[in-house]
Model the fold of this input.
Amino acid sequence: MAMMNGKQYRESLKNLKPTIYYMGEKIENLTGHPAFIPHINAAALTYEMAVAPEFEELCSARSHLTGEKINRFTHIHQNHDDLIKKVKMLRAIGQQTGSCFQRCVGFDGMNATYSITYDIDKKLGTDYHERFKKTLKEIQGKDLMVSGAMTDPKGDRSLSPSEQKDPDLYVHVVERKKDGIVVSGAKAHITGAVNSHGHLVMPTSAMRAEDKDYAVCFYVPIDAPGLIHIFGRQSNDTRKCECSMDQGNAEYGCVGGEALIVFDKVFVPNEHVFMCGEYEFAGELVERFATFHRQNYGGCKGGLADVLVGAVYALTQVQGTSKASHVRDKLAEMIHLAETIYCCSIACSCQGFAQPAGCYQADPLLANITKLNVTRNVYEIARLAHDITGGILATMPSEFDLKDPKVGKWVDKYMKGVADVPAETRIRLIRLIDAMTCGTALAESMHGAGSPQAQKIMIERRGNLERKKKLAEKLARIGEQPFFVC
Ligand code: SF4
Ligand code: FE
Done:
């Protein structure tokens, strides 16, 4: 089967029978439930844009395995151009959705798994890479959306996986059979989990020999027996079920839609197992995945910032503040912050390199710099948006009151800005700014792809402090130094 469009993706979800719970209820009709529709719409755009003439160059690629045209979200990067196109694609989609479109996590997981399985096989003579290539061909051929399931609940953070009192706090192998493995545990915060076709499960951290049952990587379809998805709450999520205007971005929501995935003795056939016990490769897999996902954030968040800057700019015109010099200065600052993170994403792509498997990896140091900047710049962009918007962001009456036969006229009268623009225009812009900056979306910029401290650890490790010290010592004429410090 060829690439799917958005409609076909939505239809394909109807053929699956995943177990999903939300707000204490079992969800039987995922695609028709208002809590999930915006997230499905955002993911559907990754399909729609790949077949749209305006975007197909960015959003599709040619499979290096089959030569077929495929959705870029299932592609393995073959060169620098692929790495750069990925970032540009994420920005382009983010500009359309104003929200997370979820499909990048599995995309990054597949790229990391592709190269690590090659390295494991080279060292240990296993056949994980061939197994993975076969699974990848199926994913590309069917144009599947795959979630990237990495983060475990972790329990007591001071203990390793095997030291936990409850062994299920990290996903682990509970039984080895001739034809596969049985796994238990859970993965938390998994973006796009309920509207994916399957999950690529990876270990969450470096492992030691005693943790080898936890060094496991595999693919599992979303409706495999024993898989349970518990969808997370988001700020203002009941607005999705109440009315459209107060949502701010009714079409695509404000975040990706994350779930806790429980693995209750799930069977995984051997052909879908890509690491099982090779604990010495777990840390490297995590690092490669993290590099890919941190590479992304100047792309998608850059796209979201374009929408937010646009909303704030339009609002200044509606509120009569667009000519104030401090407002224009703040808008320029917002653009500067957004383009800075985009520059970082492009830079780590340009500085990428080939792995032994032949695929391309972004530069790890610069990818971590990208993400660390995102944890700061996105908050600063939001702070400036709040500053320009004013206190009305926190106090505005609802759509229900605007439409109420008794008080609607008062809301309309007093929510107006400049005389010739309807109050509803102002209300809609403020609600969009609200959706993009007042809730779960910001926390995603902080912790998605790893919390700031995770980036700091990588930056410190890869920053080559010893060489920097030598550069200084040479100029300060301390000790014997070479002519060039290399
Ligand atoms: Fe993709 Fe950005 Fe969402 Fe991560 S946060 S899945 S990179 S859109
Ligand atoms: Fe994310």
